[in-house]
Specification:
Blueprint lengths: L1 E2 L1 H6 L1 E12 L14 E2 L12 E2 L11 E12 L8 E6 L2 E6 L1 E2 L6 E3 L2 E9 H6 L1 E6 L4 E6 L8 E4 L15 E8 L3
Parallel strand pairs: 1-8, 10-14
Antiparallel strand pairs: 2-5, 3-4, 6-7, 9-10, 11-12, 13-14
Length: 182
């Protein structure tokens, strides 16, 4: 299942269509047309080692099973990672779903932590001030201290991705990049 970075980070309910083996409605899983009788095999004397039908049911092709297309709502948990596989019940069967998470143009992921870059001007780096950055859940207002250096990291606790196997959230690290005028 394809997910955007944001869908994987926040969680989402997403529909997929799957083919499921189900009991044939026409033959009730027996494999032959209703009203027909099973012939006892002369090779095994009806012990059940071999069966033949006068009229195998057409949709099930004598197997008693048919493929049915079902649309299923998948609750994607917040914090799933690329190539993570989950098991989900569908009726009396189970399916395995592997998530494919697209790369984000803004964020980089490291477990439950996310990283992004913030461009500041030379004047802003020298004098300090405020800046806005895109967060995972909201736009962030940041205070830029005077004299900040390029590649300085600002840590925002609890602003990362929800931890799948525990409580709480990861952190959002903002890497300051100073724009040098040309």
């Amino acid at each position: 299942m394809e997910l955007t970075f944001t869908q994987a980070a926040k969680g989402v309910n997403k529909e997929i269509s799957v083919n499921i083996d189900t009991t044939c409605q026409r033959c009730d899983g027996k494999g032959h047309e209703p009203g027909t009788k099973v012939q006892h095999c002369h090779n095994c004397n009806g012990s059940g080692m071999a069966q033949s039908f006068l009229l195998p049911v057409t949709p099930a092709a004598g197997t008693g099973q048919t493929k049915q297309r079902k649309t299923v709502m998948v609750p994607v948990p917040a914090g799933v990672e690329d190539n993570q596989t989950v098991r989900m019940p569908v009726g009396k069967k189970e399916i395995f779903i592997t998530f494919r998470v697209q790369k984000s143009p803004i964020f980089r992921r490291d477990g439950a932590d996310i990283h992004s870059d913030l461009q500041v001007s030379v004047a802003q780096a020298i004098l300090g001030g405020t800046a806005r950055a895109q967060g995972l859940y909201e736009t962030l207002n940041l205070s830029i201290p005077a004299g900040i250096q390029s590649d300085h990291r600002i840590r925002l606790s609890g602003k990362g991705i929800a931890r799948v196997s525990g409580y709480g959230f990861g952190d959002h690290y903002i890497h300051v990049k100073i724009k040098i005028p040309k």
